[in-house]
Structures are given as C-alpha cells and as structure tokens.
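Re-run with default settings, no changes from the original entry. Doing this only to confirm the output is reproducible before filing.
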Amino acid sequence: MSSPATRMFVVAIAVLALSRWLPHPPNFTPLVAAALFSGAICRDWRLALALPLGAMLLADLWLGLHATLAFVYLGLALAVAVGRGLGSRRQPGLLLGAGTLGAVLFFLVSNFGVWLTQALYPHTAAGLAACYLAALPFFANTLLATLLWVAVLFGGERWLAARGQRAVDPV
C-alpha cells in the first residue's frame, strides 16, 4: 500500500470523510459513493471496508457517537458490497444502478436503526412506515449526493485511465 496511486486513494477517502465537517444539507455527503468506489477498486475485502468505515469512525469520534452508529456502518458496508459486485464493470448505467442501490440500502438500514433504537415512532409496522416516510427528504439528499460523487469518483478514475494513468493500484 505504498504506491503513490494507493496513497492518493487513501487521501481521497479521508478528504471525503472530512467533508462531513463542512456545512452541507442533511445527508448530502459523499460517503455512500466512497464506499461504493472502495468496494469496486479494492481487491482486499477488508481494505475495501476499512477505508470508508475507518474514515467514518474518525469523523464520528470527532462529531459524536450515536445510537444508530451500527446501522449507519452496516449501510455503508452494504454499499461496499454493491461496489464489489461492480468489479471492473463501470458502464454508466451500472454505476447509476449501483449508486441508487447503495443509497436505497443505506436509507433502509439506517432508518430501520432510527426506528429500532429511538422512541420517535411506535415499534409497529405503522411506526416503521412512518419513520421511512419522515426520512424521505433525507433520502433525496443521500441519493443526489451519492450519484454526484459516483460520477466524480468513477469519472475521475476513467479520466485518469484515458490519460494512461491508474487512479489507484487495486489493493
């Protein structure tokens, strides 16, 4: 993990995680896209998980831990799995689908955590439905940010490849 390209990848993930400290609309972060990208380019499953989850943990230690932490991390881990499913297939339609699926999985899992760990909604099917309904504006931000950052990350990789450079060395 000492090549310049790999170091660039680690720095990129860290910078994306640091973006949580910048003012932004709720849930408009690049983290789901970073997890998808990490899953797609890392050969080693552990590293693919460690980079986005480690960056998230670093930010959470600064911003504060919360009751839904495990669900948020599980949602990001599922996004890594979706990225792993992409492998080297990086066509725009597949990237759009992967970004959408990653955002949907993150939404479902993280909001299930809100419903399960907090007393905001009754612990019934109707309460779960109300939780998901109330979270739809946040989902719109998650989806838009994910698709934007998927385009930036995977587009940047394609641009570098077209210039004869590797964005990262798959590790």
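Residues 4-162 form one domain. The mean pLDDT is 87.
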